[in-house]
Write a structure and sequence with these properties.
The complex is a heterodimer. Chain A is mostly beta strands. Helix content of chain A is 13%, strand content 60%. Chain A is elongated and about 135 Å long. Chain A has a domain of 187 residues. In chain A, a hairpin with a 2-residue loop joins strand 26 and strand 27. Chain A is built from 9 helices and 42 strands. Chain B is globular, with a radius of gyration of 15 Å. Chain B is an alpha+beta fold. Classes of the chains: A mainly beta, B alpha+beta. Chains A and B meet through strand 13, strand 14 and strand 15 of A and helix 2 and helix 3 of B.
């Protein structure tokens, strides 16, 4: 930018210098000069019109340039006028001038152009733009000196108002522009040129309280203070047969104050620093060494090259061996994980990143995690002491080693786990785990043939990750599992074969059946499907078949009152929302086969209680209360849950004219339990069951009371 | 106040919408999942409402919401508005899918979405922004 300004000023000098002898010699009352077009290697000016009116010493100068193009930037309708214009033999001076671009407010400008000495080779231009208010001496000052061997320009700012300059910037669409009139710049920029053109630049500038924004506000900054020290020297490149120039440059920037939003990232300044050095040759900007120091994250070393005119990155090497995970996550990673399970984490540990980008393509990315912990703020999961070396290559298959020392998912403890992850390329990564084992309580979870790929926008399915796996669960004790889950303690073991599980972007589907061994029987879960598992309203669907459950173990677990025998449970069209059933057709029935069938008095009471408060008391009033347990031949109960109401029935093969048979007596003493109430509110049924199991947990008190 | 307006709007939306071409579609259908999504949207509405009014967020043609003018939000708040929009759109997508599914016609989702899209705009308050037929933003 400075260079362009200086070029423009240099051009003004040329015009004024050309004008100078005419001014001095002309004693006429008015003079007008116009030119259609002036072209130079780096600039092009159209529609030049210069007028001079009045007579010395009170001349009035007017200058209008219709179009000024310098290095691809175009200014339209540049006006300069000066009411107090003085011309003498060795100097011209404007004590009260105004510069404006198109419709912008005029900038108060003064200048003095002098050509001391006899020859006209040495000229000095001193231009000042005052602040609109404030102390005298504040504002912009440009000093330009041309001589036979070249020229030199210095732009000095003392609390120079950014707004003064901004309105003179050429406007292009979608440009990111300063968005407020606040902001000041102090410091100096110096450009020296010899006969071959600009030779060196030195700039030491401090920007204070500047704001910028694009039209949408998605790339914006406010109240930004930055100090920049930069220098560049022209170098002679040794190319046989031709004389070519390049530049060596270095820059240091410090960002102590302000905030920037760059969709979706937000940064508040914390004294971050950037220092870099490199070269500029033929519009290719080389970054030899660059160091970005981000507070709370760490240091990032950069090198690479970019096409300066096309603004495209050719090569980049990024090396950041020691980054703080907490800062890296909260400032950079988190905004990209909105609406995922990882959008609200507490993180700790160190991360290393090494990235190589060549000819516009990512060649490698190495991620190194050391002692990382991830803890969900909602308490859904926590993983501790994660160590990983994750290499990614452009096209080659790579193997990552990830270990997790421990943690929990939901209430289940995790780890230690080793994950042998295979990654199939960098630019369209896919992940595979041929096989891994993870201890789960006293058992073991085996995962096989895991694969995940990211699918782009395709017809009929949302973009995102798709994954699948199969697996196996070796026996874990139900006692430990139920304790960990904080639910009713149960005996038995849980084990099973996990057939193919797939995630298609919106639903997790288990193809085949899940098999569990609990209560000495088997539980088969099939047609299992979780809709929107990671959304705000996840629901679960399944069909369940339970065979030969041991009633002794089952009733013992739930303080229902002891029963002996075997039970089959068939559940169809089960639909859970928020882990609560909203729909199902369920049937409980005694299993086929020969086994001991006894039901305790307390269990009979429990079953009766489910039908209402009155039924429970009936048995207590009859002679049956003297027996502790009874024989039965069959038990059956069904519930069809719809809209919060359970439609109940009993043993299907034994229909009754009124009510339904739940327990059919058999043996001595036998007992028969009949239900009369066919419709019951599901919530009411659940709370009754809750009361029964709670009450049975204190049997002594219960009996005393009755 | 805000939530009662929202409830009224949603109620009107759900009860008045005749689904073009699918007269048997019950858009009032209430399942626990739909109730939960509506609850979540209703809770969020109070947070979104000032951004609708300021023009920061507008209603899109496809029944979602989008950042229209981030300049209306203080810089430090733009990230959280992004998050609100993403969460709201996740709920809206889930709502359309659930209503279609609860009607046992998942293939109706696109029609339900476009019907909702029109009605959200019809029910928007004066001064709120929406995407017109050409995809440009218009102020109601």
């Amino acid at each position: 930018m400075n260079e362009k300004w200086l070029l423009m000023m240099k051009f003004l000098i040329r015009i004024l210098a050309a004008f100078f002898p005419a001014v001095v010699s002309a004693q006429a009352a008015s003079l007008a000069l116009s030119a259609e077009d002036i072209r130079g290697p780096r600039f092009n000016i159209n529609g030049i019109r210069i007028t001079l009116t009045g007579a010395p010493p009170s001349l009035s100068l007017g200058m209008k340039l219709t179009e000024v193009a310098i290095q691809g930037k175009t200014w339209h309708n540049l006006h300069f006028s000066c009411d107090r214009f003085h011309a003498a033999r060795d100097a011209i001076r404007c004590d009260k001038g105004a510069l404006r671009l198109a419709e912008s407010t005029p900038l108060p400008v003064t200048f003095r152009l002098s050509a001391p000495g006899r020859t006209s080779d040495v000229k000095t231009l001193d231009v000042r733009i005052r602040n609109s208010a404030g102390k005298t001496g504040e504002g912009w000052k440009l000093l330009l000196r041309t001589g036979r061997a070249g020229w030199e320009g210095t732009l000095t700012a003392a609390n120079g108002e950014v707004a003064r300059i901004v309105q003179l910037l050429p406007v292009s669409e979608n440009a990111i522009l300063p968005s407020s009139t606040k902001g000041k710049i102090s410091g100096a920029a110096k450009l020296r040129a010899d006969l071959d053109g600009p030779a060196d630049i030195d700039a030491h500038l401090a920007v204070e309280g500047v704001a910028f924004s694009d039209a949408s506000g998605l790339h914006a900054g406010e109240n930004i203070s930055i100090t920049v020290d930069a220098e560049a020297r022209r170098t002679l490149r040794r190319i046989p047969g031709q004389k070519a120039h390049g530049w060596e440059w270095q820059a240091d920037a410090h960002w102590p104050q302000g905030e920037v939003f760059w969709q979706p990232l937000y940064f508040a300044a914390r004294g971050d620093r950037f220092s870099a050095r490199g070269e500029l040759d033929d519009n290719i900007l080389h970054l030899r060494t660059g160091k970005l120091s981000l507070a709370e994250i760490g240091e990032i070393d950069l090198s690479g090259s970019m096409d300066w005119s096309a603004r495209t990155l050719h090569d980049l090497d990024l090396d950041a061996p020691d980054l703080q995970m907490a800062g890296l996550y909260s400032q950079i990673v988190k905004p990209f994980l909105v609406n995922t399970s990882f959008s609200a984490l507490k993180t700790a540990g160190q991360a290393g990143v090494k990235w190589r980008f060549r000819n516009g393509v990512s060649e490698m990315l190495d991620v190194d995690l050391r002692g990382i912990s991830l803890e969900d703020e909602g308490g859904r999961f926590a993983l501790h002491d994660i160590n990983a070396r994750i290499p990614l290559r452009a096209t080659a298959l790579t193997h990552a080693a990830i270990t997790i020392r421990g943690g929990h998912i939901s209430r289940l403890p995790v780890g230690p786990v080793h994950i042998p992850l295979e990654i199939t390329g960098l630019n369209e990564p896919g992940f595979r785990i041929p096989r891994m084992e993870a201890p789960l309580m006293d058992g073991r979870l085996t995962l096989e043939n895991f694969s995940a790929i990211r699918q782009g926008q395709a017809q009929g399915s949302p973009p995102g990750w798709r994954w699948q796996f199969s697996g196996d669960l070796s026996p874990i004790s139900m006692e430990q599992l139920t304790r960990a889950l904080g639910i009713q303690p149960m005996n038995g073991t849980l084990s099973g074969k996990i057939p193919r599980v797939t995630f298609d972007g919106s639903a997790i589907e288990v193809q085949g059946a899940l098999l569990f061994n609990v209560f000495d029987g088997t539980v088969l879960v099939w047609n299992l499907k979780a809709l929107e598992p990671f959304g705000s309203a996840p629901s679960l669907m399944a069909d369940v078949d339970m065979r030969n459950l041991d009633l002794d173990l089952l009733t013992g677990a739930f303080s229902f009152g002891n029963m002996e025998g075997r039970m089959d449970v068939v559940v169809r069209d089960l639909e859970l929302f928020d882990w609560k059933p909203v729909k199902f057709n369920a049937r409980l029935m005694s299993s086929r086969g020969d086994y001991r069938r006894r039901i305790s008095q307390r269990a009979v009471q429990s079953i009766s209680s489910l039908g209402g408060v009155g039924a429970a008391a009936a048995i207590q009033r009859s002679f049956l209360r003297v027996f502790d347990e009874f024989g039965y031949s069959q038990i059956g109960w069904s519930c069809r849950l719809r809209n919060g109401v359970c439609d109940m029935g009993g043993i299907e093969s034994e229909p009754l004219p009124h009510g339904y048979l739940i327990v059919k007596g058999g043996g001595i003493p036998a007992i028969t339990v009949i239900g009369y109430n066919r419709r019951v509110d599901w919530q009411e049924l659940i709370s009754r069951l809750q009361r029964i199991t709670d009450a049975n947990a204190r049997p002594v008190l219960q009996q005393d009371r009755q | 106040m805000v939530s009662s307006i929202f409830r009224a709007a949603l109620l009107m939306l759900l009860s008045l919408v005749p689904l073009a071409g699918y007269t048997q579609a019950n858009i009032e259908i209430d399942t626990p999942a739909i109730a939960s999504i509506k609850r979540s949207m209703q809770q969020r509405h109070g947070q979104l409402e000032p951004y609708y009014s300021s023009g920061a967020i507008g209603f899109t043609r496809d029944g979602l919401i989008a950042m229209r003018d981030a300049n209306a939000v203080p810089l430090a708040g733009r990230q959280s508005v992004n998050g609100l929009i993403a969460a709201e759109n996740q709920d809206r997508n889930a709502l359309y899918r659930e209503i279609a599914r609860a009607n046992s016609h998942p293939e109706w989702e696109a029609d339900i979405r476009s019907t909702f899209g029109q009605r959200w705009i019809e029910l928007a308050r004066g001064g709120w922004w929406y995407q017109d037929g050409n995809g440009g933003w218009a102020k109601k």
